[in-house]
Amino acid sequence: LTILGLESSCDDTAAAVVRVDDLGRANVLASVVADQTDLHAAFGGVVPEIAARAHAEKLDLCVEQALTQAEITLAEVDAIAVTAGPGLIGGVVSGVMCAKGLSAATGKPLYGVNHLAGHALTPRMTDQVPYPYLMLLVSGGHCQFLIVSGPDDFSRLGGTIDDAPGEAFDKVARLISLPQPGGPSIEQAALSGDPARFPFPRPLMDRDTCDMSFSGLKTAVLRARDAIVAEKGGLTRQDQSDIAASFQAAVVEVLATKTKKAFKNYPHDAPRTFCVAGGVAANKAIRTALETVSTQNEADFVAPPLSLCTDNAAMIAYAAAEQCHLRGPDDLTLSARPRWPLDTAQPSMLGSGK
Ligand code: ATP
Ligand code: FE
């Protein structure tokens, strides 16, 4: 099965060609990601209208590049997969329209894929992870513990009640004048910082649930920054690093502690695999801490390579390859959905727009 995937739900325009063999092993023949960081840099965040336009302009080109890199023609792919939500609606619409056009022109079946399902199934692309598995999906817009029991079977154990960690990394980077995206720049700055200098809050830690909160952490960083600025007029490089390290340490501790609770609340016995995915899973300090908790719970730990953690179209193509054994393709009424929680059914089963 060879699938062309399209992804345009946030600020990365992506196309990929993935081949999945009869044993379910994935081979990424091409994965093209055109990021829009430069376009949004002046605005301090992703501007939805600019993102949507850039997706509309770049999708064709990304598809062409992916096909060229994979040394395959459109006629040779078996299906077309596209992120149909959740995400910034203008971008999702651009992707869905492009995929519909390709499907209508070639007669290839079309699969609308949940972006979060793409992230959640990613560990199975590189490792033989059996269902069910416990996972932490931690990205720019989401943070949740899931039990993944099948390609379209997700149940949520708990998650953030306000901001997602990726969003917090990005906002904190902005507060202390580090470049976007904030995750990698905070991780880099934290390497030379003192994680104990600022005792940033770790909320909801004594609760037995997997609920988390990150908005107070952001506010605490703002206060710490303002205090330094009031005292010395600005941040030194060391101040930036210390804030980055202290912030990252708080996120690491919250995620590790809540992973312990997730293991406690995990209703299954063997097989025990714990996976992490989503953009924030690219963070090495977070990966290391989660691996330790996983080992303490005698579970195998799987973290996808960095290029598959952040947004990409290979995960969308792969999710469609898994899901097409469970459901038929979507037709041209497939709609783009700004919101689409993971623990609900496919859009084709729900009707449009809910
Ligand atoms: P969602 O998947 O929830 O819709 P998204 O697609 O925007 O959101 P991803 O692409 O999965 O999110 O992840 C992007 C986020 O990951 C950004 O907030 C970015 O700062 C964060 N990130 C990337 N690399 C790192 C890192 N090394 N450490 C921490 N965070 C990181
Ligand atoms: Fe994402």
Automatic annotation (TrEMBL):
This is tRNA N6-adenosine threonylcarbamoyltransferase. GO terms for biological process: tRNA threonylcarbamoyladenosine modification. It catalyses: L-threonylcarbamoyladenylate + adenosine(37) in tRNA = N(6)-L-threonylcarbamoyladenosine(37) in tRNA + AMP + H(+). It holds the Pfam family TsaD. Gene3D superfamilies: 3.30.420.40. The gene is tsaD. Fe cation binds at H115, H119, D311. GO terms for cellular component: cytoplasm.
